[in-house]
Design brief:
- This protein is mainly alpha-helical.
- It has a domain at 44-84.
- Helices cover 52% and strands 0% of the residues.
- The longest helix has 36 residues, at 44-79.
- It is elongated.
- 0% of the residues are buried.
């Protein structure tokens, strides 16, 4: 069985990535390593499509919760003794 490497150990340098656009931008900013938050997404269009889908679900959920509160409030008022 092979052992997993220590996740806290620094990764070896990748000479092929030295001239990548991320590395050049990082060196221009004075950074030691090309760390740019977010990483490299292999398929950004699929990720954007998924984010739009989840945004629509979020908007629908908010609308349902807000309208559900109004509907329950109206029903509670109509069904309460002396209401309506």
């Amino acid at each position: 069985m092979s052992e997993d490497p220590d996740p806290r150990a620094p990764l070896p340098a990748d000479p092929a990535k030295y001239d990548s656009p991320r590395a050049e931008l990082a060196r221009a900013r004075g950074l030691d390593a090309p760390y740019i938050a977010g990483g490299e997404d292999p398929d950004p269009e699929t990720a954007r499509r998924e984010e739009r889908f989840y945004l629509r679900i979020l908007v629908v959920m908010v609308v349902v919760i807000v309208l559900g509160g109004f509907v329950l409030g109206i029903l509670g008022t109509l069904l309460s003794p002396g209401g309506g």
